[in-house]
Amino acid sequence: MLSSLCLNGVLLVLFTGPTVSEFVVIGEVGQDVTVPCHYSVRDRNGITSMCWGRDRCPNSKCSRPIIWTDGWRVTERHSSRYQLKGDLHSGDVSLTIVDAREADSGIYCCRVEVPGWFNDQLINHEVVITKARISTASPHTYTSEQTSAPGSTSEPSFTVTRTWPSVSASEAPQTASAPCSGTSDCLDVTANLQNTSVSLPSQQHPERGLYIGIGSCAALLLILILALFLT
């Protein structure tokens, strides 16, 4: 009975294996990406070896290993782009991928070898390397406004209209109604109009002229008659 219980316990440990944690790490192309991994170090005797692999953690060691450490220094390295920049003596064995590429995406295994059966600390990381975001600046529309130079004032336009009395075309002064080009021009035109005196001939009554003409004709006719009688 006791032996069967022990056998079941051993089989349970063999089939279940150590507990594996899984995390997701997202980075960008061209950036340094750090995949975290730590283990507890109480004293110098707690420092142990570990490895990083490019696949899920197997039952032992690392599949497709990329870097190894004996706990004190890096003993094997697949590429200089894989670095352990943390303090190894304190249990910081985080993996830094220098100048990450899209091909670096995938599953990474951090395996810390702890003495004893099935005591290894296993962590699987899914690393996702995405292309760097390109920020597209929306086009801006700049509107330039023409403003007066400092110290200058805008000059409004004036229109001067002058009404003259009814006179003959030859005597009537020529006037124009047009906008002034500036304040000084408008003031000069106004002053000239005020200082200009227009002499208008006295208006003659049409009835009086008619009477004078008739009297002149009658006098001429009377002179002609007298001249006939005398001859």
UniProtKB/TrEMBL annotation:
Keyword Magnesium: no
Signal peptide: 1-21
This protein's UniProt keywords: Disulfide bond, Glycoprotein, Immunoglobulin domain, Membrane, Signal, Transmembrane, Transmembrane helix
Membrane topology: Single-pass type I membrane protein
Coiled-coil ranges from the UniProt annotation: none
PROSITE patterns: IG_LIKE
Source domain of life: Eukaryota
Intracellular or extracellular location(s): Membrane
GO CC field: membrane
InterPro entries xrefs: Ig-like_dom (IPR007110), Ig-like_dom_sf (IPR036179), Ig-like_fold (IPR013783), Ig_sub (IPR003599), Ig_V-set (IPR013106)
Keyword Disulfide bond: yes
Family: Belongs to the immunoglobulin superfamily. TIM family.
Name of the featured protein: HAVR1 protein
Species for this entry: Struthidea cinerea
Record lineage: Eukaryota, Metazoa, Chordata, Craniata, Vertebrata
Gene encoding the protein: Havcr1_1
